[in-house]
Amino acid sequence: MTSAVHPDEPALTEVPVTAVLFALSDPVRLQIVQTLSGGHEYACGHLFPDMPKATRSHHLKVLREAGLTTTRREGTSKFVRLRAGEVAERFPGLLDAVLPDPADALPAAPDPAR
Prior knowledge:
Elements lengths: L2 E3 L11 H8 L2 H10 L5 E2 L9 H13 L3 E6 L2 E6 L1 H7 L3 H5 L16
Antiparallel strand pairs: 1-3, 2-4, 3-4
Helix pairs in contact: 1-3, 2-3
């Protein structure tokens, strides 16, 4: 099986901080980033399964285009993960500033893709 990175994924050097801040300004997207901050890769359809597919797709697109996530396709499935290391390198302290303390974290989404 071949896997490919999504073509709309920008290099973080090309992403202005305003785009990242806009992406993180929405509570739903912030919750998605919080869930992904655990370091797991999730099948897109398993990430917040109660959310309408179109809504989830929209939020994942905004996060991807802001350089916060990477999406990988494997067969007919798509997998998403946070680009935490790259984001921390480009925007030091940003994720730490917007993500809650892990002790205060909300319950995670269902099991990550394996």
